[in-house]
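Form 12-C: Joint structure prediction
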Amino acid sequence: KNEVEQSPQNLTAQEGEFITINCSYSVGISALHWLQQHPGGGIVSLFMLSSGKKKHGRLIATINIQEKHSSLHITASHPRDSAVYICAVPKSPFPYSGAGSYQLTFGKGTKLSVIP
Amino acid sequence: DTEVTQTPKHLVMGMTNKKSLKCEQHMGHRAMYWYKQKAKKPPELMFVYSYEKLSINESVPSRFSPECPNSSLLNLHLHALQPEDSALYLCASSLLGHETQYFGPGTRLLVL
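Section 2 - Result
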């Protein structure tokens, strides 16, 4: 079973700051997910990445498969970025078999508050 | 259309009621999921349907009954729930397993 650790648990930043959220996992995977959840809201999938780096607007996600580590960066943070950011990885090690390919293990989330 | 819709948004029910949650997607995804999320906790997987067949049931009590009438629709039938079942119920879909999961906005359920 894959174990996921996210840090920090809580993060407060001033508007405009560069933010980094980290995620480590214990077993080899083919891809990792970054998700965003606003207070009281549903979940938005931000990235699924298996190597290198992906960028979408002010969000950048990187992954190092060998070190079993991923980071989510937010440049020029804004109060609307305030949300919980969740890292998720497949529950079983790669290669997946059958039902194992559907199950994700979620990190506990990082609660980000960006102050104007 | 990259959207998963869920109805209702909010639901209050008594312990003797029968109600249903509905989830719909028109992205051609063949995997659909039900998750339960308590406050300040990550989502917990309840059920997975793959090609309209139940492929995973994470030991969910029988008072929750999933149904997948077709490839676009997923229901969760609720009967005789307990107050501790109050939570946000999230539906998700993906093209196949180990692909990006697209989540709906959730149904916030309160059991009195």
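Section 3 - Comments
The CA atoms of residues 6 and 23 of chain B lie 5 Å apart. DSSP finds no helices and eleven strands in chain B.
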